[in-house]
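User: Show me sequence and structure for the first protein, then do the same for the second.

Assistant: Starting with the first protein.
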Amino acid sequence: MLALAAGFALTLRAAPEPRWISAADPAPAHAPSRFTRAFRLAYVPSKAWVRVHARDRYRLAVNGRPVSVGDTPWDAESFDITPLVRVGDNMIAVDADADVQSPDNCFIWLRRRLSAPAAFERLSFRTRDARQDEWLYVEVVDDKGHTSGFYCVERRRPDLLLGRHGNEREHVIALRQEPTLAYRTQSAPCDFSRLVEVGIRMDRKQARPAPAGQVALGAVRLHGATDTDLGGPAGWRLEPGAGEHRRSRLEPGSNGFFVVRYDFTPAPDPCVSVDVQAWGPTGETTRVVSDRTWQANGRPALLPEVKRDSFAWSPLAIEGPGARTSPPLAAAVSVTFDGGRGVEGMTNAVTLQVWAAAALPDARVRLRLQNWQGDEVFNQDAAIAWRGAEGRARVALPGLPRGLYRADASLAGIADQRRHAAYAVLAPGETNVASVIRTLTPIVRRGMPLQGVDTSWRADPALMLGFRDQGINFLQVHMSPRQLDNGEFNDLLAFCRATGLRFAINNESANWSTNAPGPDGRCRFVAPDGCHRWDLSPEALDAATATGLFEGVVYDEGEHMQLCRNRIAFPRASDGRPYLVETTGMTLEEAHAAFTGAARQVNRFHRRHGARMIVESVFPSLWHPLAQADVTLCPKLLKEDVYPVVLALALGAAKQYGAELWFTPDFWSMGHFPGHSVEKYTAALRLAHAAGVDNVYTEHFIGLCRIRGVTYEFSAYGAALQAFLDDAPSRAKRGYTYLDYEPEVAIIRFPDSDWGQASCYYWDTLYGALDLPPTPETGEWMQVFSLLTGGQSDPRAVNANSAVYPRYEQPVMMPCPPTAVYDHNAGPEVLRGVPTLFLCGVTVSPGTLAAVEACVRRGAICFAAARLCPERVRCQASERPARVGDKKGAWIVLDGFRPEDLGPYEPLLPSVGHALRLKFKGREVAFAADGTGPDAP
């Protein structure tokens, strides 16, 4: 057993998850923080791994022997340390450093509290020993917390700019008379008759070149009916402002002065997370995880709150003995351009920083530059100057033509990091990076189906080069109304024209915000009939269409917004506002007709401007009325989806109404990003292709390509997409589309929008109507899917947002025969040849019932709710379940679709098998639970 130094054992079952830890005290300037943990090992393990994640750079060592380094790693990394651990005492150490800079303007507060409120007319004090152009901002505060505002150089107090001479100066401020600078809003003005506090803010402008210094203050007095002496450091306290503050000190001085010694040298609290696991020879598993028991710079570690973002998003814990380990890295290189960008024809300097496990005295670093077209334009080695294990090299870049360039730095013998730096060269006098867009050339491979990414947009060199390197041909771009006003929308149009990328605009801004005033002051999110959504203006649509590359507007999770009445944008306690149409007060059939009509109207608006309406959906609920309205369907894969349901509904709706069909694999799941493994993502890409759709784009690009400043790097997910795209030519001969789908099972139901809302947190509002809750009839189709998946799909919900599925463990891939869901108006053309039918839900049209009867007479088996059967069949089924023969086929008349409701007729169900199966033009493709299949394209 692995025994910890504290003398207790920690097993895998009892151990908590690893936590982010940080240091209570910063490390010395320009030094990393050190995190350590000692442990004892009673045996030699058969396997020992460590997983480490750091914000931002780290060195990992076990028992003093280096394991790996990372430089702003995007993902946690796992390493095999079996050869490094030993019986007895062991030590793991992580040196971490955060590679950030101080703000240009740093400041710190000195505050002094009075024992009781009092009236004062003047404040006086003396300063000396200033050497760095320090500025003072002075305020007094009353007992209600109201401030006088700042007495400062910006309000006719030039003496509060202390200068560099260090001379002693006296400052006298007439509190009631002198103008002040308001720096925060307050309900009332300062009451100078009840002052309780003096505040002095000491500012260092341009702190980066010289972040440390000192200022002495003395003879601090408040003058009134009775004067109060505030001199000496006792009673004063330092409070943080902007920039690093913890090295700053208050110290006694001489001749009645006290000294503020400030030091804003960056110490931005690097954080680490560590998980050590050892597997014993007889199967024991033990752990040591980062927590308060670790030491950070010699003191107990703290547990900071680390926001989940693009730099701290991967699982922190080792997933198990089957997880993959990373190859160790001995050194990492980052690139910094002087000035951030270049000027056409002018030489520019580049700094190459090396973060190594140990100094590499003979190593040289190589810098290569590639232009937008992929041609190498620079290649040079440079010597490295070392300070400990950190190295630095300088390289002079020759004058280059205006454009975008990719820089790659590497060390001989060190594994390639696959990290790139983006470099923009502008024309003399230019300041807007978007100006280089006109130098770009097409990057799209012609003749390929649309395959792209969901992304936000800015004219950022790293983002633009990331698109190029990924190999996509389509962008689905989240825009905000602000971007339409500030020119970024026009930059996007120019970028797509230059590169040949097709694109769609995502209007999700309205899902998260209640208001967006346009130039005329009117809210752009106010839609007709009291609805809340963002319909782009005709002018914006026309400008996008004029590029010849515009696909349309993506109404992101439009079905979600309709069902929940925009409760994301509006407070949960309110009724919210409808998204497409108000349905409260309608019957279910009226709500369906109103929703379909509203979707058709919005789509026609886009068609008039040469675009289309695309609805991206997470819940399998409203695809049939959207398809009926000629809207392009875009269901999600991954996320919280159950694949047999998503495919059956999407393929069925598209086939029935001839609608266009896209898919978007979405990394999110239950608030986690990514909530799915690389293997599941790869399976989702292959499944979307196998379904024969027109476009597959991945949400969100930040999961594929992480960008930080000029640096960008493709994640394992990005590598998976690149491999998928590289194989596109071999997949081009698929030979069918989604419209060629040949289901062996058809579920026929009225599209009531019930996906299992009653079994989870969600609002029970069918079609968004406040008075239309789910019913047993609306939930019948979910029971049918449970039958078709062998019970793996829960009969209460067909999306894992429902609590009936294990949180974070929902199985997306389930076995199921080729199935399509059709609505209550399905005709004979889509039902012909389907051997097994299910008739459920609230209603079915006479024409559809007649088509089902014809199928049964030709030999189909129809499992049907008794109330939906033809009257002649219902009369023959006085007791249920019942089998009623009808020429070559039969009706199985039921009161429900649970296994027990089927009774002796359960063997008539189609075989579930062991794979999710689809069928096109007589060809079957199958996916096992892990996404693999012998004949999956």
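Switching to the second protein now.
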Amino acid sequence: MYVMRLWLVVFFCCTHWLAYGQIRPLTIDASYENEPWEQVVADLENRYPVKFFFPDAWVSGFKVRITSERLPLEDFLEEVFQHTNLRFYVSEDQVIITKDYQVVSRWPKDLEVSPDNFQESIPDISVDQNPTLQKTERSYTIGDPQQRFLKGNASVYGYIRDINSGEPMVGVSVFVAEPLVGTTTDPFGYYLISLPKGNTQMHFKSIGMQEIVAKVTIHGDGQLDIEMEERVVSLSEIVISDEKENVESVQTGIIRLNIKDIKNIPTALGEIDIMKIALTIPGVQSVGEGASGFNVRGGNTDQNLVLLENTVVYNPSHLFGFFSVFNPDVIRSANLYKSGIQAQYGGRIASVFDIGIRDGNKKKLTLTGGISPITGRLTLEGPIKKDTSSFLLGIRSTYSDYILNLLDDPVFSNSTASFSDVIGKVTHQADSKNTLSASFYHSRDRFRLNSDTLYTYSNTGANLQWRHTFSNKFFGRFSSSYSNYTYALQSDRTPEKAFDLDYRINQVSLNADFDVFLNAHSLKFGLSTTAYQLNPGTISPAVDSNIKAVNLEQEKGVEAAVYIGDEFVLSPKLSLYGGLRFSGFGRLGPQQVFSYQQGFSKEVAFITDTVNYQSGELVKAYGGLEYRFSLRYILKPNLSVKFSIDKTRQYIHLLTNTTAIAPTDVWRLSDKYIKPQIGLQYSAGIYRTFYQNGLELSIEAYYKDLENLLEYKSGADLLVNEVLETDIINANGRSYGLEFLLRKKSGKLNGWLSYTYSRSEVQAASSFPEEQINSGEYYPSNFDQPHNLSLITNYKFNRRVNLSVNYTYHTGRPTTLPFTQYSFNGQVIPFFTERNQFRIPYYMRVDIAINLEGNHKVGKLAQGSWTFSVYNLLGRNNAFSVFTDASNGNIQVYQLSIFSQPIPTITYNFKF
């Protein structure tokens, strides 16, 4: 009320004074050295035609120090009152001094009134029928008013958080329309944008959140923190996003998975699986149903860098690929980079799947969870100290063993199939410049079929991170991480062949990453180092076993890298990203290295010498420059083209002679005979949005050259092999394709359609026939699937009921089958064709799910939802693999299927 009265008094005073004529320009030429304000006023009023009005109490003890040479009166006063709470208003020859409030000569536009509409306004709390119009408008003043006369733009920066949980919001669009300038928040919810000084409107948009429009008066650099809340969606609509990231982003081949969207998509056995959703993205596929890992643009599964909160995950699956190790309730973000990979990422040549963990609710304690036919999950989160520290703990486990024990069939009752995982994080904001976090995860699997071999494998990881703010344009992140993957086999069904097998890999990494924002530049640089220690395999025979004990030497290696990358804007239409990364690797002892006779292939019979390297001694070193380049040119506001080049290196390799990744596959480090894999990829695409950004289209083409791929001789033994180089072949590869993605983000019906045409080929050409495959010609790789089509749809009946339907089709993968057979000494011998010349049948599947939300009454103790889904609705008998059997004297070909019947599931999710 006081402010309103002040506005009215000033308004009428200004109207009265302005009636006497126009303001005459007045310049001041005077100097004062620590003189009282009263004397300065007396001197100015004596020398110039000006009068000052102010209460004596406001200026008591105020002294002036200034040297002025013909400064305009207003500039003179700006400098005098700098760094004080005094303000002024100049009208003709009169100067009014105010305290804390700035006097203006007219109403702001958003406060303009007339006698006809001057009345108390009542806020409208009704729900808008168009979600795109649901906006929250706020007003802010940023920067020191004294800075408004300085040349150049101002930097506006700050953090965007969820108003209910206090967690940072990732990927929020921050922009102004005139002139069009925009950015997005980083993984810590931070943004920085350079804007012209003056009045403008800043927009803050994020999927599922209410848009904020901030009316901002910008005097200079300043911080603007924003809290966003969930959008209230009308009964006839679902969430709409007006973002144009696919058009405006510099990167090609990046897919950001939205966790809210993922929870509506039906999956096998009712368990939400981010890895399976990734398979519906163009260029991403798997070798079959229930297979571990994924293949990106024709690459092998080991060529994907999977990170969980900056920690490497070596086996991201449970139960041989039926589930992923990532609990969806704790995931903050999930970004898949297929190309345009920035310089801070390294160590793999196909893709980067970067998954972030939420910080936890900083406002209140909450409990969420879900129950499905074979799994249950709980997530507890809350503040340790409100608005400062928080914790998050997610636990998931199966009760499938209990179900198997209830079955009468001994095949199942004597089996076990279980997994569990736990993910946690603690975050503490020490002050405005320092944030600390610690995260960890652990997963464990056990599988045994009918008292046969017991498989046990586990992932363990931990990460410590310190984020320091040097300034509003300079940040540093210092982190250390630990990754461990182990597996064990225990076979005791036949006493004379009973054994235990153990394998282990440990990785410790240190990273320092820095971000610098420089006007039109976004600079990133840093360094990293990683130490590896592998136990390639140990076989321990049982007491009465005839199995020979084997204990391979440990493998040790160190990988280091430095990088720098800069994303800069050359014009409103043209943006570039350039990055350089130099990586090096050293294979360390102990290692026993065999030498082979020149002019012959590597065979045990041709070993000529043995060199023993001691622990820590350098065995072999590799290194080289990796470059990353991306370009984006905007043809129209809703249309752009992009191009990128990526060169990458990989020093650790997965050895497997099966098409589907298994927990018993082993990782090996580069050495004298296993060279680093090198990838060079070219990508180009066109990106378009339609219908007010509610529909987006992208078409990308790519071509990749691959060096030093690992292929294997027929019948290769990769498990606990002391002369592994005699069974492997260095090969080259190439892959190319075209990807199409059409995504509808608005309306009752939404989803996406993706189609990929791709080819992946390998060439193993050598001067030795024993090391050639298919006579040295290119042949389809195990991951060559030319056609891949996915359709994901979601129909929203109202706020509480929605229907999701998925359709998936892809070409059958290559396989090697016998062409004919012959008899030798009474035995039937199959004669195989060249490698990968046949294909298994094509794959097709339809899934359906209905999601029922409970009511959302205010003050309700718990919120719940039900999901009813059917996986493989048509019951199609899709082939996972094809194999042969010659035990009855004739070669018979059989097909193995994983899910050959519809799988109905009911899941209940809750939140307290």
